[in-house]
Amino acid sequence: MSANIMREKMMFMVTWEWLSRGWQLFKQAALLNITYAALFLLIGLAVGTVLLHQGFSIVYFIAAGGFLIVVPGLVAVYYHLAEVIQRGDKPGFADILDGVRECPLAIMVLGLVSLVIYLIWITDALIIYSVYFDFVPTSLTAFGTDPALRADVAAFLVFVSLLGFVLSFITFCITVFSIPYAVQKQCGLVDAVSFSVKTVTRHSRLMFFWAAVLGGLTFFTVLFALPLLLVVLPILAYANYATYNDMLRLMESK
């Protein structure tokens, strides 16, 4: 078996282990995890209902992509709950409030940065939408019968997907480990972001694959199976917490 195949196999095995550990942490307080995720589900349902009712089916694609940019800061509470579980305690609803109240300044700044990137994404994506569709309702129901619309939709999706990939990967690099690091260490912004970027760049192949797993599962859940967000969101947050702990030990051993 070649070295490349072995590396690919190990990468899949490690990723599966992180997801499994995320599932185990999720089960420790399933109702609590689902309750917190329900806040974002309700927002998603409201946005999706409005857009689909108004005929802006394709714009919902933009909204789903934008969620990938802002979600790292939103799941910081799960990292706090994971810390509670790791201490051997049973988390309760009060711990959600504690997670918000004790949120380090570094995470607030990262949340603001993510919001700025999100606004850049929304603005640019809507500008591209207006170029192709004059900002009028464009339903996917006409997609199969109108060749011109089909070509425009395909081109639009290619452009916004490329833009979304760049912005979401930038967000991933600066937030994927900086937020759990800030929660655990109660450190400043520079230390947290430096740790995250350094870890991603030193293990770029594995981290790129991990970004694809996190982003892909989140995006397709929001786009096609929104109610599953109740379970998928906390599991992925806890899986990333497991990833962070492994990467932290690896970086500290060097």
Automatic annotation (TrEMBL):
<dbReference type="Pfam" id="PF09955">
    <property type="entry name" value="DUF2189"/>
</dbReference>
<protein>
    <recommendedName>
        <fullName>DUF2189 domain-containing protein</fullName>
    </recommendedName>
</protein>
<keyword id="KW-1133">Transmembrane helix</keyword>
<dbReference type="InterPro" id="IPR018692">
    <property type="entry name" value="DUF2189"/>
</dbReference>
<keyword id="KW-0472">Membrane</keyword>
<feature type="transmembrane region" description="Helical">
    <location>
        <begin position="30"/>
        <end position="52"/>
    </location>
</feature>
<keyword id="KW-0812">Transmembrane</keyword>
<feature type="transmembrane region" description="Helical">
    <location>
        <begin position="58"/>
        <end position="82"/>
    </location>
</feature>
<feature type="transmembrane region" description="Helical">
    <location>
        <begin position="208"/>
        <end position="241"/>
    </location>
</feature>
<feature type="transmembrane region" description="Helical">
    <location>
        <begin position="153"/>
        <end position="177"/>
    </location>
</feature>
<feature type="transmembrane region" description="Helical">
    <location>
        <begin position="103"/>
        <end position="133"/>
    </location>
</feature>
